[in-house]
């Protein structure tokens, strides 16, 4: 009868401008899809060139090489007898569009440009592309000569159209269009489109996956149909981790789920579904059918091809499944770990160096590297040849097989405790014990000689010797002495990252890992150019609250008992002198606010778009049971003073894994001035008026 269609979607670990690698991964996904009987294959957004090309999209080279890759795909026998839907930038009448190119048997069927561009948060698509604004309109696109020679076509349809095969009708959405209030799938579904496709470049944010899944399922719950979503995965070359979650849904229920975090470069989902289930589902929705009778029809591109087989009564179809979501602690364990692995293997370095202080932040970073090692060993055990080859190259051992995460951690992670006269024996012991339990190569050193030398130079030049406040010095002196310690640690971290392996008779260098969390960055509670200055930071987008929960997760799931004492100890920078051998300095006392308060400030400032006055208005209700309006006003003012005084530090913030929507990342996510009038006179006067 021709009612069971077999379709494939995929999650690919593409890399910006890696045309050769991207092509190889596309071919692999097509081979897998065909081997499983699929007649249609969907890939991620801009998969040919990679989603994260940024200003390289302006370059004609990017367009040229994308068409050269398309030429290879079109002429290959591997793409025969399957509809292939790939993503690439296309220049049409001197305007750049983010497009899907859909082809079959060396013929391009349709070039479909993106209608709604993502332009919020980390996305800047309007900088490089123009949205297609001509609804249900198709124009002729004149193909480049290299493509004409393969297809024999001079022009192909370009615009907002759908494909009509022998047995069904398909319509395409691209990423943001699913999230738009007027998603194309609504009108397409009313016009008889039965299969909706969505190629995405959607990145990971903690607690976000359910929103994407709910949107896909709701797209067909009201209107019926089959929805296929492809997404990029991995580190594309910047701060984002694209988290896969390829999926196939029918009539509001998930029938196939891809992994959110995985070291597999190519993951393909295939499902066989009964078109009659869509038709019978729609038959009962009278409101939908009434709206369908009045819909403005889409242009249809006729395709002499079927997604089903004539004799398919015995073909089994897929049944609904329950989507399993990761907990936030699992997301922290897996997402940054996969991002680190991509960065390590693609940067061709030999491992990481981590200044391990014995506190929560650096310990959480160490645990993420340990989780990465666990993921690598698991992938090798499951037969992932790519991961094995990368592990052997990183370890500089062609026969190496990573089986024990602790043994792998010894090879790829060097931890370093940098003691000073202000460090306690407790933090030294905690760092050493954690290093032993995760297996890292651990170094203990003392920075006092370097600190005294630097301060001595200042004293020789000026004739003055600064003192800590506990010894009668001013706050300026004390802060300067703390900063000297912090900055010397950064210098030593890079020295040891470059030469530790050399000293051990091993090749290569190490990437320095930063350990400032999102809350400290927001408040500016860090020394500019200290150990927060590193190559990359896996926890820079994660709150202190979530990191504590992650530490507890590691205690329970990784059996890292050393973390118990780290969890119970108050966070401290250990930059001021000890009192009777004990730490007297704590983070929250230094900051004048708790980490829990900082998270609230951060979410209101960025997600709630609140300035000082609006934040005060919201907090007097949120905190009405615990603080008076005058206390709330004092807290809000203190936060905004500290935030604005320290905002300049965000301009040099180490590239961090993006995990929170209140990240203060100044690179492209949180665009603000870095020279403020820190008195906030007008705003604070408005607050005072309300307090009075």
Automatic annotation (TrEMBL):
Gene3D superfamilies: Carbon-nitrogen hydrolase, HUPs
One Pfam family per UniProt: NAD_synthase
UniProt keywords, alphabetically: ATP-binding, Ligase, NAD, Nucleotide-binding
Domain of life: Eukaryota
Residue span(s) of domain CN hydrolase: 5-275
GO biological process: 'de novo' NAD+ biosynthetic process from L-tryptophan
Repeat among keywords: no
Protein EC: 6.3.5.1
Biochemical pathway: Cofactor biosynthesis; NAD(+) biosynthesis; NAD(+) from deamido-NAD(+) (L-Gln route): step 1/1
GO cellular component: cytosol
Repeat as UniProt keyword: no
Molecular-function annotations in GO: ATP binding; glutaminase activity; NAD+ synthase (glutamine-hydrolyzing) activity
HAMAP family named in the record: NadE_glutamine_dep
Family as reported in the entry's similarity comment: In the C-terminal section; belongs to the NAD synthetase family.
Subunit structure: Homohexamer.
Alphabetized PANTHER family for the sequence: GLUTAMINE-DEPENDENT NAD(+) SYNTHETASE (PTHR23090:SF9), NH 3 /GLUTAMINE-DEPENDENT NAD + SYNTHETASE (PTHR23090)
NCBIfam families in UniProt: nadE (TIGR00552)
Protein name: Glutamine-dependent NAD(+) synthetase
Species classification: Eukaryota, Metazoa, Chordata, Craniata, Vertebrata
């Amino acid at each position: 009868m021709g009612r069971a269609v077999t379709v494939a979607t995929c999650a690919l670990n593409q890399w910006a401008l890696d045309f050769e690698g991207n092509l190889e991964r596309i071919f692999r996904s097509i081979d897998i899809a065909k081997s499983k009987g699929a007649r249609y294959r969907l890939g991620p957004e801009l998969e040919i060139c990679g989603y994260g090309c940024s200003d390289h999209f302006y370059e004609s080279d990017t367009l040229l090489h994308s068409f050269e890759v398309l030429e290879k795909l079109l002429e290959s026998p591997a793409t025969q007898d399957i509809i292939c839907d790939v993503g690439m930038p296309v220049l049409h009448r001197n305007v750049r569009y983010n497009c899907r190119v859909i082809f079959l048997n060396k013929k391009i069927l349709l070039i479909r440009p993106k209608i709604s561009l993502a332009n919020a948060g980390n996305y800047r698509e309007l900088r490089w592309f123009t949205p297609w604004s001509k609804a249900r309109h198709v124009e002729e696109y004149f193909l480049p000569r290299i493509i004409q020679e393969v297809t024999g076509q001079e022009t192909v349809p370009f615009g907002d159209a759908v494909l009509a095969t022998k047995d069904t009708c398909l319509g395409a959405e691209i990423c943001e269009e699913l999230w738009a209030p007027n998603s194309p799938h609504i009108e397409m579904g009313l016009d008889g489109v039965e299969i909706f496709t969505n190629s995405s470049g959607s990145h990971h944010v903690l607690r976000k996956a359910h929103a994407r899944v709910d949107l896909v399922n709701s797209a067909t719950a009201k209107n019926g149909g089959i929805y296929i979503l492809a997404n990029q995965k991995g580190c594309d070359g910047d701060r984002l981790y694209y988290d896969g979650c390829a999926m196939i849904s029918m009539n509001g229920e998930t029938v196939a789920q891809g992994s959110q975090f995985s070291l597999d470069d190519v993951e393909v989902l295939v499902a066989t579904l009964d078109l009659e289930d869509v038709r019978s589902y729609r038959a009962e929705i009278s409101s939908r059918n009434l709206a369908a009778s009045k819909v403005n029809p889409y242009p249809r591109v006729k395709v002499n091809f079927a997604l089903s087989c004539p004799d398919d009564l015995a073909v089994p179809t897929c049944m609904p499944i329950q989507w399993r979501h990761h907990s936030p602690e699992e997301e922290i364990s897996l997402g940054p770990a996969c991002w680190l692995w991509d960065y390590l293997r693609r940067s061709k370095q030999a491992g990481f160096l981590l200044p391990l202080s014995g506190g929560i932040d650096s310990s959480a970073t160490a645990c993420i590297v340990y989780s990465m090692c666990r993921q690598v060993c698991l992938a090798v055990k499951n037969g992932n040849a790519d991961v094995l080859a990368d592990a052997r190259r990183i370890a500089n051992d062609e026969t190496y097989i990573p089986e024990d995460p602790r043994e792998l951690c010894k090879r790829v992670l060097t931890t370093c405790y940098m003691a000073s006269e202000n460090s306690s024996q407790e933090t030294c012991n905690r760092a050493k014990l954690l290093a032993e339990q995760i297996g890292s190569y651990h170094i203990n050193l003392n920075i006092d000689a370097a600190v005294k030398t630097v301060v001595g130079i200042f004293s020789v030049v000026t004739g003055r010797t600064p003192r800590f406040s506990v010894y009668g010095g001013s706050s300026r002196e004390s802060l300067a002495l703390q900063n000297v310690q912090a900055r010397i640690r950064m210098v030593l971290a890079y020295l040891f990252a470059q030469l530790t392996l050399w000293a051990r008779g091993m090749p290569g260098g190490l990437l320095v890992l930063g350990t400032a969390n999102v809350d400290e960055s927001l408040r500016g509670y860090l020394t500019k150019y200290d150990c927060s200055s590193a190559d990359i930071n896996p926890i820079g987008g994660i709150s202190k609250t979530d990191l504590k929960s992650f530490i507890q997760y590691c205690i329970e799931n990784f059996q890292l008992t050393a973390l118990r004492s780290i969890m119970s100890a108050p966070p401290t920078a250990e930059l001021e002198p000890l009192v009777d051998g004990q730490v007297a300095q704590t983070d929250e006392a230094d900051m004048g606010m708790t980490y829990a308060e900082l998270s609230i400030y951060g979410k209101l400032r960025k997600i709630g778009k609140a300035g000082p006055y609006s934040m005060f208005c919201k907090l007097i209700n949120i905190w009405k049971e615990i603080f008076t309006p005058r206390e709330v006003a004092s807290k809000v003012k203190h936060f905004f003073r500290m935030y604005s005084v320290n905002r300049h530090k965000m301009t040099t913030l180490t590239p961090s894994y993006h995990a929170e929507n209140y990240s203060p990342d100044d690179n492209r996510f949180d665009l603000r001035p870095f020279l403020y009038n820190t008195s906030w006179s007008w705003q604070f006067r408005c607050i005072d008026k309300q307090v009075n």
